[in-house]
Design brief:
Number of helices: 19
Shape: globular
Largest sheet: 6 strands, antiparallel
Mean pLDDT: 82
Low-confidence stretches: 295-303, 568-572, 634-640
Helix content: 40-55%
């Protein structure tokens, strides 16, 4: 079986190479008619078939529990249900590269079957992308066997055992694979000097890439909110950002392509944008798959020896893009000089130019922060940027984008008149002012005056954009126009801006102790912990914390749970899954923190092992172990006492980031420096109980002195963070509008492209 599996990869690579050579031979011919690409197409179809065979073999090995293969051992186990066995296929690097190649192959087949243009040079560039993916597969094959078969596998990460994670990775990789199509079309158009043609042919593919990658990102955010228990849907994790970067750049590209299509502006700019978008896909893969973020992200993979190949992959396409644009720079400059006029300040093209600049700036600024661990590797202590960095750079951009959403949809091409749009602008501004005034009358979140002003500004422009775009959607609905796609996207984005602000800055939360059988009033709800339920599983224990929740005479049951994994894990062996009660205005979010009996603490074991750059979330605090402090390592000439500190960056919801340094002194059972107090009014402490020089890890103990010790007669208790999260249904509604609008836009531009060819 191993020989057949490895052979299928090599045959795929050979077939793809033959197809590429045949396309190259035809592409070098100067004539545009009479070329014959049937042989090249057949070779590509054969490649798609053989890579499909490879995928089927890996899926069969996983489903049949063939534990002679290393990949099957690492990511599956016999106790997994079928749908999680399927998701084991892309749980690791090797399987995800095979999935990416498989999707790229069949997208290529769809392109070949649907394209009515000359595809010789397009497929040449497209195949180069797939060749590198095949090289990575051969270098890091998912079909490596072990000397002795195991009885069972290690299983799928418990966090990935969720239906949304069965869908999320394939959709993201579909978006990654789809970006290669418009990039190849753009590079081929530079070769052919078809500078206008690629917009018509490439727009629907850029929209498809934007749609699929956007859905993947949104699914990931929903999974994070539903499963991880930390209460949010976006944590600015480097791997989250890695998929966000090309998505933001693709939005900038779409707006630039619209301007080029209508006014013939931004021709050279769009080549830069499509090149950067595609290169960001490769760069994101490098960040997440090379291991450079292994200590900075809970999602990152370790280095499997493919880093140099990823660098070569990125370097070749970077050089290819730069060289082609440079060769045609004369043509592009002449076209720009002949077609470009200074856009009028209130014209649609000026607004779209501003949107392109803002979106590209956001992508680049976010990319710079995401790359911090890579950029700081030359320093003694590589580090990541704080989450506040992303808010600081993106908040002003979001305000300006919300402002543009208020007037660009109403503006006209090449016109500088406000007369026709001022009525809508005034109505939108009044609505924004009313909502903003309502927020001012309410108690604003306890933040700085500057941040409060930013919140009010974003709400003002977001509400204005919602009203303006709602008018436009209604108008297009009446006319049954497919132009409604863009208006739906803009409406969805404006609603998302508004809901993100409300859900982030107007959330209320409270940490509570719920004694078993005793009702406790929490933020308008009466909650009663009815008792624990233990479910012994093959790989650990799941503790369900059963609750009854009552409000306004209505009662419902909740069951947040904690999974304790029996397999040692360097970062954590506990996984907290919340219970979410969804509502129209807000969600009730119950995140479990622990369970305590009178005799001992079953789950509320407050001792944690952390390695450098690990992140610990406990009791509303986010704690990052940044580095060791060796400045006090030797004290006293006689004793030569060894004293080592741990640099901890601590963030809580009510305070800014602070740095705490507890010290561990070897040979001393007690030392005052071991304990540091966490920020806040309550008496909560961290103790540095020990260090391990071999693994470069520390042992921390968390103590909450505000929690009283139970007597033997007292019942057990559960601990939880109860949150009221407003406007969450509004956020998901905005997401649905965005996805729907993008889908309609794909249909629109597909019809436009077909109509252009007919003419």
């Amino acid at each position: 079986m191993e020989l057949i599996a490895q052979l299928s990869l090599w045959i795929s690579f050979i077939a793809l190479s033959v197809s590429t050579l045949l396309y190259a031979w035809q592409a070098l011919k100067k004539d545009s008619v009479g070329h014959d690409v049937r042989s090249a197409n057949l070779a590509f179809y054969f490649f798609a078939s053989t890579i499909t065979v490879s995928g089927c073999i890996l899926m069969y090995l996983i489903i049949s529990h063939n534990y002679r293969f290393e990949y099957v051992i690492r990511y599956s186990s016999s106790d997994l249900p079928l749908h999680y066995l399927v998701s084991s296929f892309w749980a690791g690097q090797e399987g995800s590269f095979l999935l990416w190649t498989f999707l790229g192959a069949w997208l290529g087949v769809v392109f070949l079957r649907s394209s009515r243009y000359d595809i010789r040079r397009i497929m040449l560039f497209y195949n180069l992308n797939l060749i590198f993916l095949c090289i990575l597969l051969i270098k890091q094959s998912p079909f490596r066997s072990v000397a002795t078969a195991m009885v069972d596998g290690f299983g799928l990460n418990i966090l990935l055992q969720d239906p949304w994670m069965v869908i999320h990775p394939p959709v993201v990789f579909l978006g990654y694979a789809a970006f290669a199509v418009p990039y190849s079309i753009a590079m081929a158009s530079l070769w052919d000097r078809g500078y206008a043609q690629w917009i018509e042919q490439g727009m629907k593919w850029v929209l498809f890439s934007f749609l699929t990658l956007g859905i993947g990102i949104i699914l990931g955010g929903f999974w994070s909110y539903k499963v991880l228990g930390w209460g949010g849907y976006w944590g600015w994790d480097p791997v989250e950002n890695a998929s966000l970067l090309p998505w933001l750049m693709s939005i900038a590209l779409i707006h630039g392509m619209i301007v080029q299509r209508v006014k013939r502006y931004f021709i050279r700019t769009n080549y830069y944008l499509i090149s950067i978008s595609f290169l960001l896909i490769i760069y994101s893969t490098f960040l997440t798959r090379s291991g450079v973020l292994a200590n900075f992200s809970v999602h990152s993979f370790v280095d499997l020896g493919i880093t140099s190949w990823l660098v070569v992959f990125m370097g070749i396409f970077f050089i290819l893009s730069v060289v082609l644009i440079a060769i045609r720079s004369g043509d592009l400059r002449d076209i720009s000089l002949n077609s470009t006029r200074n856009p009028l300040i209130f014209s649609r093209e000026f607004g779209l130019l501003a949107a392109v600049i803002l979106l590209a700036t956001s992508a680049m600024a976010t990319g710079l922060g995401t790359s911090a661990p890579l950029l700081t590797r030359v320093l003694e202590h590589p580090s990541n940027v704080p989450h506040s960095y992303y808010a600081m750079v993106n908040f002003p951009i979001a305000i300006l984008i919300a402002f543009l959403l208020s007037y660009i949809p109403l503006s006209k091409w090449g016109q500088n008149k406000l007369d026709t749009i001022k009525t809508f602008l005034i109505i939108g501004a009044i609505a924004g002012a009313v909502v903003s005034a309502g927020l001012l009358l309410m108690e604003l979140p306890d933040y700085s005056r500057f941040l409060q002003a930013m919140i009010i500004l974003l709400v003002f422009f977001a509400v204005s954009a919602v009203v303006v775009n709602l008018f436009i959607v209604i108008r297009y609905l009446r006319n049954r126009s497919l132009q409604i796609g863009g208006a739906l996207v803009h409406l969805g984005v404006a609603i998302m801006f508004l809901s993100i602000i409300i859900s982030t800055y107007y959330e209320r939360s409270e940490h509570v102790e719920l004694p078993e059988g005793k009702p406790v009033d929490v933020m308008g709800y009466t909650m009663r912990f009815t008792g624990p339920e233990f479910d012994e599983l093959a790989k650990g224990t799941r503790l369900y914390l059963r609750m009854e929740v009552e409000r306004d005479g209505q009662t419902f049951k909740a069951a947040p749970d904690i999974f304790v994994n029996d397999i040692n894990d360097a970062q954590t062996n506990r996984f907290h899954r919340p219970h979410i009660r969804r509502g129209l205005l807000y969600d009730l979010y119950v995140s479990p923190e622990g369970y305590e009996t009178a005799e001992d603490r079953y789950v509320m074991d407050n001792t944690y092992m952390m390695q450098k750059n690990d992140t610990l979330r406990v009791d509303g605090y986010t704690i990052v172990f940044e580095a060791f402090d060796l400045s006090k390592m030797v004290q006293g000439s006689a004793t030569q006492t060894i004293k080592v500190g741990a640099v901890l960056n601590v963030i809580s919801k009510n305070t800014s980031e602070v740095q705490l340094i507890p010290y561990y002194e070897v040979g001393m059972d007690e030392h005052s420096d071991r304990r540091v107090q966490l920020p806040g009014e309550e008496m909560k402490f961290l103790y540095l109980n020990g260090i391990d020089a071999n693994s470069k890890s520390i042992e921390l103990f968390y103590e909450d002195q505000s929690v009283t010790i139970k007597s033997d007669e007292e019942a057990a208790s559960m601990f939880a963070e109860i949150s009221i999260k407003p406007a969450m249904s509004l956020l998901w509604f905005g997401v649905i509008l965005l996805i729907s609008g993008a889908f309609v836009s794909i249909i629109r531009y597909s019809k436009n492209s077909a109509a252009t060819l007919t003419k």
